[in-house]
Specification:
heterodimer, A: 719 residues, alpha/beta, Spore Coat Polysaccharide Biosynthesis Protein SpsA, Chain A, 5-stranded parallel sheet, 29% helix, elongated, B: 759 residues, Rossmann fold, 8-stranded mixed sheet, globular
Chain lengths: 719, 759
């Protein structure tokens, strides 16, 4: 089975078989041939791109006047009216879409035709600018296929965006004669202005049988949830007017109404609001005395004052979007573009893309009957929230309203997500503006679980050749009650680990993993041998930690399973003179990192370290043989947004930088290197994820005046 | 040697084949190989005259929208009322909002009539409503009505089917055509078609129904609820089964199903096909033909072998050891299996086309379940194999969150239903989809408190906010004679000296008026005095005067120094959703007496932080006062010294995490008995005799006299009553204390930021 996912290596990096030189040559030849092959394929991968881009030149250069004309006989069949009971499982043929590794539906576009009736009169305008843009966008997208037999979704080139611009019966006949029409199954129609006088239906009146409808202005009675897609009414002003994003903050007006064709009843209610609340409410209307040549659509008036539209929308915090004859209003798009929070007053209206967009974050919906309370309702919204709504409104416009392309692609993505739900785009991806995506974290271990103590932890000791010290560490660690397994990562390729009989006899299983290369990242590989959630990473010279201290560390980790819980703490500081980050190992009142020479963490972070480390950090660490612990601290803090937990008082640790405290010579280069690491990682992550805290964890009764023998962890902090 | 060579060549060959396999797609597109040059991808043409095309609507048309002015909005709404009824009901046409305006969202349950038996399950639903904070015994106040007739089982072949419902409801004077009524239903229709038929006219009532199908579901009006069994607990409910987050999910099976196979009738199509995906290794799909009385009549060739295989596996064992569980439709669309899988953290793979998923108005099921299609059963194995391990882990955790937040008890299911309906009443004060789908869940987030995520303690990290940099000291003042005691003066001074203190709010809970402003100590921060209503639960009332996220709650004159306060506040900023404080206590299970015990002895563990000196988020005041039902607060007002336990229980129930203890300079003189009460017992109006005149927070070891022991036993009672009320014991243990980084380290005090904590 081909999955789009990268399969995790289930074995360690160690397992390249050792072989005799004789065979090596075969393997080398084989390897080079495969490599050559790969390069060749790589080149092929490249070439077709240039062909695709050159396809722009091969597309037909034709005029719309040249498209073939199709005559519709008066008695040609008409599809059934839209079926209100249609749902994906009843009216949609999923077998056409099939299972594919990319989880993308294939969309086919019918070629453009001009339809005329028996008398040769045009059925509709051939195609509008917007519909042409929409079809171009689909054609340029990943969804597009030119092979009608492989298509899952069909888009007719018959333009039904505006119902007023077409003849209903004849358009229906034109649809029915499409080559794959088949009662409209898997056909998608785009409509923005449905209905017509006098009753203004909220869905396209053209009979369309089972076709899906992407419609602007659905009401809850015509919208087939999970089948139709509610889309915006595109505002051509979006393309014409450039409104730069305006920062959040107070604006001149609190409520603004800019629509020209309001029902007098609504206008009366708005004017009552204005009378009550004075100048913070501005109700604009069309201008009556404009000089010639000034487009009426770009001006609004209040008494004698003339305002530029849509610029005036940026002057207000809230902008009213009232229903007209239709529910969907193009003004919604203008309002969002201006970063004004829409106040939507249109009972039963299905908001654009409501299947995926969380409109409560960007708008205020007020029932028509509550219009008189609008002012107090809006007043009750906290300022901070208003600012976020403004940002959110603008983001919705940029992502889903600004062009026909945005509208088309969002529509197709929604349908795609229904067909491949397990590969669907998440709520956050749809809704979070880039600034939020950037500053927020989504913790992969978000469920507050306290792992059962019985699980225990696996100690992973990275070692090279200090066997004596290693054996001491093993003996010490094996005394910890919750230890469930000990894993020695033998990082020395030139020397075999000691024979089995020489190893200390301990009560838990002891496994030795041999690595292929002496790399620091081997310490963080998610070995299958690690069966517990908790991992204790420990250096082969950390012999000074007592069993109580280690057991307590494990207990602390259980309370904070999504954090690094470690013993020696370190700090990063901003060096104002050098204008960069500095590494600090002195006696500080704060910590932001713990050394992984002795630290508990969740095995999940081994996966992250090995497979999801951003940029070239992993290689950089292996190349410099340093800072794997800082990298781990960055990784965990970045993904969880949380600080480390340092446990128990400071001890003398045998580590290069600790010599400074011992009064011996300070290893200056080491400190410089470590500082460099911090700066390097901060630039790769694009931010400084480390969190500084002032606390460490001790047992509840630590240093309390209480009999030592009654304490759970008496032996803490001994030097 | 020869074999080795052979292998090498085979490998070599295989690699080339593989290369072609992967690269082939590109290769055949490559003109050189396929000669398809002339047929390059035919895109949508770039029309030469595309710039001349007209817009789909001219701007005037878009902005004018030609309102016909035929029907005024008011008339249109009136017209809707008569058109959109029955199956087309919506809130705006079939629900009377005006009933909810004066008294808010209140729910009335019809009194139960004698001789009208109701099922155990319906009894639970009714008592959930009666226990909720929305219940009202007065129909005049009610916004929503619940029938006392058991409408859960509307399968007329069932023993619990209630007859003549139509007649009965027409006799109810409050029925009003079903307006503002909510009808619960678990089973509708009967053999063979199992339609949504209820057997009576529901009029304009809303339906909260299990196994809802999307076609008869009235969006924004009905509520789809999950199917749950008779044994489903009233409250509390079992936790989910996920105890560890392992990646990759190391479970024995990938995908399992064990259940009945219908030989005929509705739903048999899907269940008949399930055996096709069984591979006996990581996918186990077992069916049995044995169901009903006459299964042998319909039995087919597979039945006997299937029945044997079926017996070899245990359902519970499969549930526990599988990553994904198939949840196919039964006769009806929903099944018990759905909740069972959810609880077991076995990711449901739904094969139930057209099912309106439970609470889909609020819950984003795409995060916790794989919504498959009955028609694509055979794609399911490859589809679930392709889900990334990280995603699987997220799915598993989400199943547990949803189970615990909305499904684990009848209370939760019913309350979720009510909250969804309440949210519709004022869309601007309702929960966003994000709130429903993030911890701690929609029920625990009150939109009446705020609609801004940053005002809650739960979403700081997810949205990149940080909690406020200042705190409010909230002091409950008790004074013997309307004047201020020395300890309280010292306390105000110590707290106001903290650089993080924004304001001091004093809760004056004696009947005597508070001292004049001149008597209060001068401090750098504003001091506000609020008057309590004389109840113990006052100290957790959401007073408007409290304006910062952090509240430092002080009671009983603890002696705190400024550094202690500063350090504790810096810790709270790291754990804004928890209670962070100084003196702690602990609970334990007493197996001899079969009840919860309570201890204030020095122990190695803690589960309660006394709110006499603790930081917490001010939102918990709102939760305490608005979320907890009145009955619980009355319980607390009646018992002495129970309110802080309730606060701890509440926060633990919300966060599932223990509180945090921070360093304190020296042990608070807890048993000193110096804590004075208002002379005439004005603080609180407990029933006489239940309350000791002076109430020291004493350790049992130091108990002297009956007053102390009575107080102690009251705290123990309180703990047990709360555990009973919540349905489980929410408190969680912690074994740690957070100290300053250099606490008691052997280094010069000059280097230490909080040297005074070590004295």
């Amino acid at each position: 089975i081909m999955c789009a996912s990268a399969k995790y290596n289930t074995r360690g990096p160690a397992l390249i078989p050792r072989m005799k030189t004789k065979h090596r040559i075969y393997y080398i030849t084989l390897f080079s041939i495969v490599l050559l092959g790969l390069i060749a394929t790589g080149m092929f991968q490249f070439w077709p791109h240039s062909i695709e881009s050159s396809s722009d030149w091969t597309v037909e250069k034709r005029s719309i006047h040249d498209v073939p004309v199709v005559k519709l006989p008066a008695d040609s069949p008409i599809p059934e009216r839209g079926d209100l009971s249609c749902r994906m499982h009843t009216c949609f043929d999923v077998y056409r879409c099939g299972f594919n590794p990319k989880n993308k539906i294939k969309v086919y576009i019918y070629s453009l035709k001009k339809y005329v009736d028996e008398y040769g009169t045009l059925v509709s305008n051939t195609i509008s600018r917007e519909y042409n843009e929409l079809l171009t966008a689909i054609s340029d997208s990943e969804f597009y296929t030119d092979d009608v037999n492989r298509a899952c979704l069909f888009v007719p080139s018959i333009d039904v965006l505006n119902q007023n611009a077409l003849r209903i019966k004849e358009t229906a006949q034109a649809l029915a004669q499409l080559s794959r029409w088949d009662r409209g199954t898997n056909h998608l129609l785009f409509n923005m202005l449905p209905g017509g006088p006098p009753d203004y239906n909220t869905a396209l009146d053209v009979p369309r049988d089972r076709a899906l409808l992407a419609g602007g202005g659905f009401s809850t009675w015509t919208y087939r949830q999970g089948y139709d897609v509610s889309i915006p009414v595109y505002s051509p002003l979006s393309g014409e007017v450039d409104l730069p994003e305006r920062g959040p903050g107070p604006r001149r007006y609190f409520i603004l109404s800019s629509q020209m064709a309001l029902h007098p009843e609504y206008r009366l209610e708005l004017e009552a609001l204005q009378a009550e609340n004075g100048e913070s409410v501005l109700i604009l209307d069309k201008c009556t005395n404009l000089s010639d040549g000034v487009p009426a659509v770009r001006k609004r008036c209040y008494k004698n004052q003339v305002f530029d539209y849509p610029q005036v929308l940026q002057e207000s915090t809230f902008c009213v979007v009232l229903r007209g004859a239709r529910l969907g209003q193009a003004v919604l798009s203008d309002v969002l573009q201006a970063g004004c929070v829409p106040v939507i007053i249109a009972d039963s209206y299905i908001l654009p893309f409501s299947e995926v967009l969380d409109w409560k974050r960007a708008s205020v919906v007020i029932p028509e009957e509550k219009m008189p309370e609008m002012y107090s309702i809006l007043q009750s919204i906290p300022q901070r929230q208003i600012e976020e709504m403004q940002r959110q409104a603008r983001w919705f416009w940029e992502a889903y309203f600004r062009s026909m392309k945005a509208i088309a692609l969002a529509t197709l993505q929604i349908i795609n997500d229904r067909i491949y739900p397990y590969a669907a785009i998440s709520y956050e991806e749809w809704n979070d503006p880039p600034a939020v995506k950037w500053s927020s974290v989504s913790n992969p271990l978000f469920l507050p679980l306290i792992p059962p103590q019985s699980q225990g932890f696996t100690a992973v000791v990275l070692t090279y050749d200090r066997v004596e010290s290693l054996f001491r560490v093993i003996t010490e660690v094996s005394k910890v009650p919750s230890l469930s397994k000990l894993l020695v990562v033998w990082n020395n390729q030139n020397k075999n680990p000691p024979e089995d009989s020489l190893w200390p006899k301990i009560r838990v299983p002891l496994k030795v993993v041999r690595t292929a290369e002496n790399k620091l990242s081997n310490r963080f590989f998610p070995y299958d041998e690690i069966e517990t959630e908790a991992v204790l990473a420990i250096d082969d010279d950390i012999i000074m930690l007592t069993s109580d201290e280690l057991q307590f560390g494990y207990e602390v980790w259980r309370e904070f399973p999504d954090r690094l819980v470690g013993y020696p703490g370190r700090l990063h500081l901003w060096d104002h003179e050098m204008n960069k980050w500095k590494y600090e190992s002195e006696w500080t009142n704060e910590v932001s990192m713990v050394l992984t020479g002795a630290a508990f963490y969740h095995k999940y972070f081994n996966y992250l370290y090995t497979y999801k480390m951003p940029g070239d950090i992993k290689n950089w660490v292996d190349a410099h043989m340093n800072c794997e612990d800082i990298a781990m601290n960055f990784l965990v803090a970045n993904v969880t947004g949380k600080s480390v937990i340092k446990v128990t008082p400071r001890k003398k640790f045998k580590c290069p930088e600790c010599t400074a405290i011992d009064g011996l010579s300070l290893d200056q280069t080491h400190m410089v290197e470590r500082s460099e690491c911090i700066n390097k990682f901060a630039s790769v992550f694009g931010t400084m994820p480390l969190k500084v805290v002032e606390h460490r964890a001790d047992p509840v009764l630590y240093k309390d005046d209480f009999p030592e023998k009654l304490k759970s962890f008496p032996n803490i902090g001994s030097l | 040697m020869q074999t080795r060579k052979k292998y090498i060549f085979l490998t070599f060959l295989a690699s080339w084949l593989l290369l072609f396999f992967f690269g082939g797609d590109q290769l055949h597109r490559f003109a050189f190989f396929s000669g398809r040059k002339a047929e390059a991808r035919r895109n949508w043409p770039r029309w030469t005259d595309r710039t001349l095309l007209k817009s789909f609507a001219d701007p005037e048309e878009l902005q004018r929208d030609e309102d016909p002015s035929l029907l005024s909005p008011r008339e249109r709404r009136a017209a809707w009322l008569s058109v959109y009824r029955g199956s087309r009901c919506r809130m705006e046409t079939c629900f009377d909002f005006s009933r909810c305006e004066r008294h808010g969202f209140k729910v009335f349950t019809y009194p139960q009539e004698r001789g009208q038996p109701i099922s155990e399950t319906y009894g639970k639903i009714l008592s959930s409503i009666e226990r909720s904070r929305y219940h009202t015994p007065n129909p005049e106040e009610a916004c929503l009505f619940i029938l006392s007739i058991d409408t859960l089982d509307r399968d007329h072949l069932s023993g619990q089917y209630v007859r003549n419902v139509d007649e009965k409801i027409r006799g109810f004077p409050l029925w009003n055509g079903g307006r503002n009524h909510l009808i619960f239903n678990l089973y509708s229709g009967t053999w063979p078609s199992y339609t949504g038929e209820l057997g009576f006219d529901i009029g304009q009532a809303m339906l909260a129904k299990a196994s809802f199908d999307t076609q008869s579901f009235r969006p924004g009006f009905d509520v789809s609820i999950p199917l749950f069994s008779k044994e489903h607990p009233q409250r509390g409910g079992d936790r989910g089964w996920l105890h560890q987050d392992s990646v990759p999910p190391k479970k024995k099976y990938l995908l399992v199903f064990k259940g009945k196979r219908y030989l005929t009738g509705i739903g048999s199509g899907t269940r008949n096909a399930l055996h096709h995906i069984h591979n006996g290794k990581d996918i186990v799909s077992l069916t049995t033909c044995k169901h009903g009385k006459d299964w042998e009549k319909h039995k087919d060739t597979r039945c006997d072998k299937d029945n044997v295989d079926y017996e070899r596996f245990d359902y519970q064992e499969l549930l526990h050891n599988s990553t994904f569980c198939i949840v196919p439709r039964g006769r009806r669309l929903g099944s018990f299996r759905f909740l069972e899988a959810l609880q077991a953290a076995c990711i449901p793979v739904l094969l139930s086309d057209g099912w309106e998923l439970p609470f889909a108005e609020a819950i984003d099921w795409g995060r916790a379940a794989v919504v498959g299609s009955e028609r694509l059963l055979l794609q399911i194995p490859s589809a679930v194999r392709c889900i990334h391990p990280e995603r699987v882990l997220a799915f598993q955790q989400q199943t547990q969150f949803l189970w615990d937040a909305y499904f684990s008890s009848v209370d939760k299911i019913v309350h979720t239903t009510l909250e969804i309906i309440k949210d519709r009443l004022s869309p601007h004060r309702s929960r966003s989809r994000f709130l429903w789908n993030a911890l701690p869940g929609g029920l625990l987030v009150l939109p009446d408190f705020s609609t801004h995520l940053g005002d809650f303690p739960f979403y700081y990290l997810q949205h990149g906010y940080s909690p406020s940099k200042k705190f409010t000291a909230f002091i409950r003042a008790v004074s013997q004679a309307g004047s201020l005691s020395q300890p309280i003066l010292r306390l105000i001074q110590a707290v106001s000296a903290s650089q993080y203190c924004a304001q001091i709010v004093v809760l004056w809970s004696c009947e005597k008026p508070p001292p004049l402003s001149g008597k209060w100590p001068q401090s750098a921060v504003p001091l506000t005095i609020v008057q309590g209503r004389g109840k113990l639960s006052d100290r957790f009332f959401p007073f408007e005067a409290i304006q910062t996220d952090a509240v430092l709650s002080l009671d009983g004159d603890p002696s705190l120094s400024t550094s202690e306060v500063d350090f504790a506040f810096s810790v709270w900023r790291s754990f804004p959703e928890r209670i962070v404080g100084f003196p702690t206590q602990s609970h334990f299970w007493d197996p001899e007496q079969g009840r919860w015990g309570y201890t204030s002895k020095w122990t190695n563990e803690l589960s309660i932080v006394l709110t006499a000196a603790a930081f917490y988020h001010r939102y918990y005041h709102s939760l305490f006062t608005e979320y907890l039902p009145a009955g619980l607060r009355e319980l607390v007002d009646g018992l002495a010294a129970c309110e802080d336990i309730l606060m701890n229980v509440l926060v633990a129930a919300v966060t599932k995490l223990p509180p945090i203890k921070v360093t304190q300079r020296k042990q608070h003189k807890e048993a000193a008995g110096q804590q004075a009460e208002c002379r005439d017992g004005a603080a609180g109006t407990p029933p006489p005799g239940q309350r000791s005149p002076s109430a020291p927070r004493s350790a049992p070891a130091q108990l002297k006299g009956t007053a102390g022991s009575r107080r102690f036993s009251q705290r123990q009672d309180c703990l047990n009553q709360l555990a009973d009320w919540f349905g489980y014991m929410p408190l969680v243990f912690s074994q740690l204390r957070l100290d300053p980084v250099l606490f008691k380290d052997q280094v010069s005090v000059l280097r230490k930021k909080y040297p005074s904590l070590e004295k």
